[in-house]
Amino acid sequence: MLKIKCLLYFTFFLTITVFAQESKPKIIEVYPTTDSIPVNILRFYIHFSAPMQEMDILKHIKLTNQDGKNITGVFFENQYELWNESRTEVTLIVDPGRVKLGLLANNTMGRAFDEGKKYTLIIDSLLMDFNDRKLSESFTKTFIAVKEDMQPPDPKSWKVLLPKANTKEAIVIDFKDKIDHISAYTLIKIIKNGTEIKGDILLVNEEQKWAFNPHKNWEKGSYQIHINSSLEDIAANSVNQIFDHKTSDYNTKSKDDFILNFNIK
Fold first, then answer.
1. Residue 198 confidence (pLDDT)
2. What is the rounded distance in angstroms from the CA atom of residue 119 to the CA atom of residue 113?
């Protein structure tokens, strides 16, 4: 009888422990997801499984080079942390003074990353959610810095794979570029007769492909893909403007949506 009671207590304790571990928040992803990041990267995003407290995020982040040495002075120390409305994603800004050529920080310290070098972003497990639960584990992202990206996204070069009528097949866009994931989720719309088509978006291939599944079957007819001119790649180059432009080269093109027309048969 004693053995049975001990076994029951052990099983109960193990169940509670496992539940507690599973209920802890965790880091789902760090964007961009690619492990090849241009030296002029402007933003990283940390996506959590639960709403998180504000805890001076930069104190919980370490960046090391390929020799394992800490690198400082990379991220911009903003007065306010840049969280989304649901408190599940925070944005880390690489000091713009080191990203843009010709500025004092860039002239004295250079870019934050050197082409061809390997780096590791480490986020410790001490960050807490609103239930005072620490992260279940720390998170690391290792990447290689590659050549600067000075080309804006070009919708004219995108490859669009069309679905068939009377199905909920996905329409797929191959950007042939690494697009900022927030831009991809929010700044591309499918329009028919002036009305936005509702559906679900999935980003794949390191944010280089965009797949849209409609909530209702596709109807035959003409459609448009509306791309907001603010859509950016991971180096913050927008459709009509590279991030690291000279003032004299400022682009005065229309800021209207870029439109791609297509037909479903």
1. 97
2. 8
Of 123, 135, 142, 139, nearest in space to 49 by CA = 135
* Residue 254 confidence (pLDDT): 55
Question: Is there a single domain that holds both residue 119 and residue 227?
Answer: no
Same domain, 106 and 170: no
For residue 215, give the nearest of 198, 202, 230 by alpha carbon: 198
Choose the final residue of a domain: 146, 175, 205.
Answer: 146
179 and 102 within one domain: no
What CATH number is associated with residue 31? 2.60.40.1220
- Enumerate residues 6+ apart whose C-beta is below 8 A from 228: 183, 187, 188, 239, 257, 258
* Integer Cα distance of 221 and 192 in angstroms: 8
- Residue 222 belongs to what domain range? 155-264
Question: Residue type for 87, please?
Answer: R
First to last CA, the chain: 72
SS3 106: helix
Q: What pLDDT shows up at residue 77? A: 87
The reported pLDDT for the residue numbered 178 is 96
Tally of domains in the chain: 2
User: Cβ(194)–Cβ(116) under 8 Å?
Assistant: no
Q: Which residues pair with 65 in a beta bridge?
A: 119
Taking a C-beta distance cutoff of 8 angstroms, is the pair 185, 212 a contact? no
Closest-CA residue to 126 (of 178, 22, 56, 31): 56
Residues of the chain where predicted confidence (pLDDT) is lower than 70: 1-22, 100-110, 245-254
Same domain, 135 and 197: no
